[in-house]
């Protein structure tokens, strides 16, 4: 009788947690949609999505969000160019080559990287990464996309390596055993069997890391600057979508104006971007399950 009561209690608690999570998501979507609607009553959607000049706080006002999107994507793809190869190499070494003693040392070090506050990464970019970049490229601005991309790449490195490591270790042992039985070397088994078999899960790991990088705030706010810039260079100051939200959230803009509602419009666009990435990541996960089955 007691065990049956406990089963019902645990079931109710778990259902409550699911309900709270779902309700929180729906409330966030409702608030973003409601406030964004007030913004789009004043600014056409086409001007917001396709305009190339972002100056909502200056006169004449302009609400083209593409410079913010470009700055965000510049940091994100620069970060993944750093995190993916290093994370994949670290995960391959930990899963296929490292001994248990070495693994027990490297894994905690990576977890320490994940636990460092993002504001520390921002100051690390300003005081360490940027001076190094300026010694090589003297024309680099104090605030620049390159240093932001580097520190965000370091930030998501533990996530990429950990998820890729889980992907490798989650593969059936028969894959390795069969490959070794056919005479494959350690390197051949890793490169020709393990990596292709784990490719869908690696893709999901990359998408999740991209979502993490898109939503990064403090590090890019401190390192990249606050200059909406529609360019492909990494040495100039830029502004990301999250950095703009921080700028307006400081309280200098009065509530109720179109400038204030830009925060919600940018937040809604950011939400849709991360939602799209999560859908793509789930596609990779489903594909990996079908592959393993």
From TrEMBL:
Signal peptide range: none
InterPro entries assigned to the protein according to its UniProt record, in alphabetical order: MetI-like, MetI-like_sf, Phosphate_PstC
Membrane topology value: Multi-pass membrane protein
SUPFAM superfamilies: MetI-like
UniProt record, GO biological process: phosphate ion transport
Pfam families: BPD_transp_1
Any one GO molecular-function label of the UniProt entry: phosphate transmembrane transporter activity
Family under the similarity heading: Belongs to the binding-protein-dependent transport system permease family. CysTW subfamily.
The protein's role, per its UniProt record: Part of the binding-protein-dependent transport system for phosphate; probably responsible for the translocation of the substrate across the membrane.
Name this protein carries in UniProt: Phosphate transport system permease protein
Native species: Nitrospina gracilis (strain 3/211)
